[in-house]
Amino acid sequence: MWVLRRIGVALVLVWIVASVVFLAIRLVPGDPAEIMLSQGGVSPDAAVVAELRDQLGLDRSIWDQYRANFQGLLSGDLGVSLTDQASVSGQVFARLPRTLELIAVAALVSVLTGIPLGLLAALRRGGWFDRLAMGLAGLSLSVPVFVVGTLLVLVFAQWLALLPAGGFTPFRTDPTRHVAQVLMPAITIASSLAPVLFGMTRAAVIDVITRDHVRTARAKGVAPAGVVLRHVLRNALIPVVTVLALHLGTLLGGTVLVEYVFNYPGLSGLLVDAVNARDYPMVQGVVLVISVLFVALNLTMDLVYGVLDPRVRRA
Amino acid sequence: MRRINPIPLAAVGIIALLALLVPYLGLPDPVRIDVPNRLAGPSWQHLLGQDEVGRDILSRLLWGARSSLTVALLSATIACVIGTALGVMGGFLGGVVDLLTIRAADIVLCFPPLLLALLVVTLLGPGAATLIPVLALVYLPGFVRVAYAGVLSVRHQEYVEAQRALGVGKLRIMLRTVLPNIGGPVLVQFSLAMASAVVLESGLSFLGLGVVPPSPSWGLMIGAARSTMAQTPLPLLWPCLALTLTVLSMNALCDAVRAAVDPHGVPPRQRRWLLPALLPGLPFRAGASLAVRDLTVAIDTPAGAVRPVRSVSWSVAPGETLAIVGESGSGKSLTGLAVLGLLPLVARPEEGAVLFGERELLRMDEAALRRLRGAELAMIFQDPMSSLNPVHRIGTQIVEAIRAHRPLSRRSAWQEAVALLARVGIPDAARRARSFPHELSGGMRQRAMIAMAIANRPTLLIADEPTTALDVTIQAQVLELLAELKAENGMGLVFITHALPVVAEIADRVVVMYAGEVVEHGPVAEIFTRPLHPYTAALLRSAPPEDGSLPQAIPGTVPLPQHLPAGCAFAPRCVSRRDACEAAPPPLEQAAPGHDTRCIRWREWQRLPVTQGAEA
Ligand code: SF4
């Protein structure tokens, strides 16, 4: 039952986000068509503006536009780009998998480093390892991603010439190069995600370890490894997963900087270009797809949460 | 609120001061181009060198700090003022306002922050003037949330309700009581927003969507220096360093503010084991299954060690039940935990010995002790809800206890777990084994705990308030169950409780503890008919009498171990106190064979008629 309700809430959220994106563009003071076409203060040609108004249907009532907009959305049509008349959905779905791959690799790296190190630091709380790891996490969290990325390029691509400075090669064309090109941007993203997971794991473990049920496990004579894995880490993962979900969601739109630094043709790069070109349909399409993914991700995480914490399932 | 750690505060202060004073430092013009000297190294005129068009790097760095901090400060302030106002209004006025502000904030929070910023930049065009409202919008929902939560938490507190009853206007209440109360969390949120705004501003500028060239900005500087970084890395490294140091000190300041606003206890120390020391020469009762001798438990605090358990001795024979009674704070639970080596991290056994058969538990290494725990020596805890792991099935948790000590297959251990659940009186045990703890009733959970404890047929069971959370009927059933199990296995039982009526039913001998010490120790019949310590007598009178008359509560509370009276610890609450009682701590004296008391007037109580006992 709770699954159905979560799905319902998710659908409502998507609808709200789509409406907000739609309205945001229409509610800006002034004529959207004119704003879109004015570049560098030059007033656009009236005929061109009229043509664009017609193409975007801006002369119709807002309700008509809204309906047309949603009919388009439901049939998977996100409109066409203003710059090159390409289909927005085509562009978006060509680039989406690349961004998702980047996020997935970054998440994997972060989970594999942040969680074990957080557990270890918590178990050695106050010791030298804990202090060292806390210091590194704090530092890593303070260096903005585009600085990390730029420095990685400087060191590994320019000075050491170990990895390509950026770009993208399809896996089928050249698997090795594909991996080499995904590696640095993914690590850059992980440099901000891993410390978050580290801190959350550490805090959650420190919290869980003092709970009564851990004492019960020890009273049963369970071996230390079993106590730590089945009773401490297992319960500590619940808040960690929540934080992971939140941050993965933020990453959906937040890889902009990393993609830019590594010249990686992902979804965010598309967005930046569209923003620069004031290509409204494209911006609208990208934002919408990202928001849908964001909501879908939260839904998935709710479901994972239900598996991790049986108490949630009752609600 | 505690003091804010001065180091990050000073660091942020220095950066802010530099940003404030740049125009007066006599630095070269940050936008003056000097192409012939592009990428020149450090010189006297240009301390950090010149950038790709010959502008002075140091000057641009400091002017960059100025623009970055201005944007961050303005946007965070706007977000703070508007967001807090909206949150307070939503929380306080409720209804439609609540709906509009909070739901709107939730929707904005659905957008990733950078995405939101990009969207707004699309609409308004790039530039520093756009940047401030954009960032303000990004941080607004955070303030709304924090303020709203703060208001909800104080709204129903008594003083606010009282003011409302007195007819104080809503606005006045908001300004006078609510705002100061949510100040802490809002301050934390503000410092977070500032730090994050610096990062976001530099990121947007790096993309060319923030501060517009040629105005100096760290993000722009990093972006521009990228093209030449292979030849001259310094113009790239300086702004990277400046940005990192600024964010680092701002983050540290956030942590410091948070720590000051929301202090979470002192971190515990991590020593657990007694250094192996010579065992004291111990006479102990022949045939005892478990004997505790002169056990002292210490907790290290910043003000020195306190001792919540002092020199406690008792023993249990096989098949015998020893009850340890006392109010909360008497040290009875800590004694039980010390025996199994399960003391909380802050506490450690300081002196004494615990003999289990031939073995001394306090000095045993953890691995050996672990093999005893849950096997020969088991424990049941007070609150079965928190003592069971909420994320594992009941059966799994029992299987774990079985398999920790016996090499059974998962399948046969599961069958045994089901049999155990049936044994402790859980109907439909095969199905219940698959339940999670929250799906069972309190009584069921306690039975499951007991099943877990007896899974490996212990020779000694320590039960810490096993019936406290249960209603009277269930309580009686659990006691009966314990008695049956004892009879079946001949196990010894240590029953820790504050409820004397339960003791009368189940115990053979009783230890009465007060403020960390044994104050009386004797056979159950004698304790109940002729208590030789006023505390025992007071406890007896505080139990609900069977004839329905009112129980007499003991006035006052147990003294904390760091504030013990000089003489008899019970003296401040004792109705039979004499001056002599407060002169020196009374010793534990033997009044009769097997009956000890820690009251200097015990001879007088002994002469009183039966059923009256001490100071009737
Ligand atoms: S020693 Fe004195 S104060 Fe203490 S319990 Fe006995 S009579 Fe009361």
TrEMBL record, chain A:
Residues 96-305 form the ABC transmembrane type-1 domain. It is found in: Cell membrane. The keyword Plastid does not apply. PROSITE patterns: ABC_TM1. Keywords: Cell membrane, Membrane, Transmembrane, Transmembrane helix, Transport. The keyword Transport applies. It is a multi-pass membrane protein. This is ABC transporter permease.
TrEMBL record, chain B:
Its main location: membrane. Keywords: ATP-binding, Cell membrane, Membrane, Nucleotide-binding, Transmembrane, Transmembrane helix, Transport. It comes from the Bacteria. InterPro entries: AAA+_ATPase, ABC_Ni/Peptide_Import, ABC_transporter-like_ATP-bd, ABC_transporter-like_CS, MetI-like, MetI-like_sf, Oligopep_ABC_C, P-loop_NTPase. Residues 290-540 form the ABC transporter domain. Residues 65-254 form the ABC transmembrane type-1 domain. It holds the Pfam family BPD_transp_1. Belongs to the ABC transporter superfamily. Belongs to the binding-protein-dependent transport system permease family. This is Dipeptide/oligopeptide/nickel ABC transporter permease/ATP-binding protein.
